[in-house]
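Hey there, shall we discuss this one?
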Amino acid sequence: MRKQQKGKSAWVLGMILGMSAIACQAPKENKNDFIDNSFAAAEEQYKLLSAAGERIQAFPRTLDKDGNVIGTDEWDWTGGFFPGALWYIYEHTQNEEIKKDAIKWTEALEAAKDLDQHHDIGFVMYCPYGNAIRFLGDEQKVKQYNDVLIHSSETALKRYDPKVGVIKSWNEKASWDGETLWKYPVIIDNMMNLEMLCYVSDLTGNPKYREVAVSHATKTMENHFRDDYSTYHVVDYDSVGNAIHQQTNQGYADNSTWSRGQAWAIYGFTLMYRETKDPRFLETAQRAADFYINHPNLPEDKIPYWDFNAKQEGYKSDVDFSSRELDYIPRDASAAAITASALLELGQFTDGEQGKKYIDFAKQTLETLSGPAYFAEKGTNGGFLLQHCVGSLPHNSEIDVPLIYADYYYLEGLYRLKNML
C-alpha cells in the first residue's frame, strides 16, 4: 500500500509540474491582438486629445511645428472626424467617459447642419452623427440625430445643379497654372459626402437624395478617371455639365496621381456600390484599387508617398516646391488608412482571389500603421494616433504631421477588420 501511495504521489506531482511548465510558457500570440492593443492605446491617447480640445475650445485637427494641437471650428471640413473617432473607440472599449466626450463633441457640431460654403457637410455631419446613431442605443437621441442628418442633407442639395449633374465642391477658385479659373469645380473627395444622402433617402423614403448621389457618382466615374483608373483631383464643369478642365489642387501635377485622391475614389465608389448595387460602381472601385495596389512606386510597407508620381520624369508641376526644402518624398498615412478601410469592404463585394487580395492588403496596411513606424508612442504626438501624414504639400500645409482624418479611417478600418474576424 505504501509503495502504491508513493507511486500515486509521484504521478500527481508529475502532473502538477507538467501543468506548471505549460502555464509558465509564454501564451501564443493571437495574430489579431494588434486590434485590441491599438484600441487600448487609442483610448489613452484620445483622453489627451480630448483634454487638448477642451483647452483650445476647438476640434483637434493636427499639430503645429512646436507640437501643440491645432484645432478648428464646425465650419471646417475636418470637424467631424474627432467625435467620429471617439465613437469607434467607445464601440470597442465601452468606456463611459469616452461616450460622454463623443456625445459632447458630436452635439457641438449641430450648427454645421447649415454648412453650405463648400461640399464637405457629409464629412462633418455623417462621420459623428452616423456613428452615434449606430453605437449609442438611445432612441430619443437617435431621433434627434436623424433630424440633424435630414437637415444636413437638405443643405447639401443646395450645392447641386441638375443641369450640371454634380454637387459643386468649391466656389470659384484659381488653378495653379495662373490662367484657369474654375467656375464649377468638383473634387474626387466629394464622393465621400454621398453616403449621408443615401442614408437619408432610406430614412425618409424620399428618393431625391439618393438620385443626386447616383448622378454625382456617375458623372464622376465618367470624368475623374484616366484610362488606367488613376484619378484627377479636380474636374471643372461648364453650365450644362461638360467637363472643361481636369487638373490638380493638392497633387504634384495635373497628370500625376495624388494618393489620398485615389483613396477617396476607392472608398467612394465602394460605398456607392453598397448603396446601389450598380456593377459599374463596383468595377470602378476595383480598378481604382488595382491601380493603387499594383503601382510600381508603392513602397514595400504599402504606405504611399503623398503623390504616386512626385518628382518623377514626365510629371511637371505648376507649383514651385523649392521653398519646401525637403530631402525626401513624404509618405501619407492618411491615404493608407482610407484605402485600408475601403478595401475591407470592397474585398467582401469581390469574388475569389481578388477579394482575398484586397482584404489581405488592407490587413497588412493596418498592421503596419499599428507598428512603431507610424503609430505614436503613448503620451506623444499630441494625443493623435498616426504619424507621417500630408495635408497639402502644394500649399506647404500639414507636411509630415498627424491628421485627425487619418486616425478616423484607421479606427474605422480596425472596426471593420474586427467585425470580419
Remarks:
- The radius of gyration is 24 Å.
- Residues 33-56 form the longest helix (24 residues).
